[in-house]
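Render this sequence as a predicted structure.
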Amino acid sequence: MKTFKKIVALMLLISLVFSGAAFAAPPDEIAESTYAGMEWLARMQSPDGSWGDYYPESLARTGLALLKFETHALNDPEFDGPFDPDYPFRSTVVHGLDYLLSSAAVVSIGLQPAGDPDSNGNGMGISLAPGVHHEIYITSIALMAVAASSNPARIVTTGPLSGMNYGDVAQDMVDFLAWGQTDPDSLYRGGWNYHAMNAENFRSDNSISGYAVMGLAFAEHPVYGFESTIPSFVRDELDLWVNYIQNDTSGGSGYTLPTDWVNLLKTGNLLHQMAFLGYAPDDPRVEAAIGYIEANWNVPDNDPGWQSPSVKNYQATFAMMKGFEAYGIETINVGGDPNFDWFEDVSNKLLAEQLPDDSWPITNWDYEDNHVLSTTWALLTLQKVAPPPPITAIDINIKPGSDPNAVKPKPVGVLPVAILGSEDFDAAYVDATTIRLTMEGSAMEIEPLRWAYEDVSSDYAPYQGDGYMDMILHFDMEDVLALIGPDPEGVIELILIGEDMGGLAFRGTDVILVVPKVK
């Protein structure tokens, strides 16, 4: 086991170095500390696979603990995910997921006033604790754990969901959260309440809503292999909630009212919600939320502050971390220092507070008094466990002005691809150095030879300028043919990926028609 710990520490050191983060504490110290904390957490698992002393709160603690064990395996190249037979915490994950899903229940869902939440048409959702006070909180965390398993084909073997695969389970959890979103006739529309009794969705708060959005973000992101469908109205309604709950004066997030209980924890949630909605990093609302965190970073009485002078609120560090990670923020402006490394400050304090038994001390909202929740929040923060920023779908047009996009299988010339600008997407804000052309299932990515800006066409006939500037890229046809393989023929879908100047990812698809060679 000691040899294994050294290997894990080395691999995590490599991954942390390449992430670009800087630490006062050496990365290997963080790796060793978190691994020891995971060993403590594994020892706290009950024989039934759960963590925590009381049901149904044990479901939430189990989901968060699983999230840590799963993402640890996913981030370590030594292992093929959390179910790898060589992963030392594999049985921990298996037993935890079995416990979690054996407690699930199928719930009938109908139309939500804002739209239809039943994305797969089966009329059902899945809740982890139907009717209990913390139903949304628990179900959202369980959804994170299911998605972070990165195995949508895995079959549930116990309980009422027996025989379903994880992909269908995740989708029905997403649909349940969509159904449980606070209704349009409420002042608090677009957020989430503690429970999802749909007819009584008269309130929301941005603590529960933060977990709901995090669950949705894990479920839909392609990196985990689930790509669950989130009904379109969910984001439209959430946008109303985000703009309502942000305090106009401070930029921070309130609890149920924008003036109520504004603090760092809920503002971290707000920042992540803004990224989930696709707000640009330079959006004034995003800048205001970051400004609130900067202004209150060292304020000990901010609910009561994440430090006072020791860390008093590990959930706040977790919430702020996911907001910063969503926007790729490594430094903020604190005390006049525009290059203040927030993670250096947080990680140093967290490492200093780890107890001799390798757990972390009890902090705010660890009600069961058993260190499990505080330790899990600390571990998730130290290893920056958060859903990746969402990938924006953009419109592209291969061979603009041409329909079909016919190409000959000859390695000569170039293939033009236009990134189409629109009212909602500024093609000039694209970071051209990040753009690659690829295809589904291929590890190959090709770079453009050159690019320029021109209003070349709309995405539909008659393919004429639409008043929005487009970005025109040219790819070497020899590279394109190497990408699509030998003797290509027929319709082939190509994928364009890249990032904008703020580091947010985008993805667009279009097809080419490869004209067969003349026999």
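Summary. The first strand starts at residue 105 and ends at 108. Residues 1-23 have pLDDT under 50 and may be disordered.
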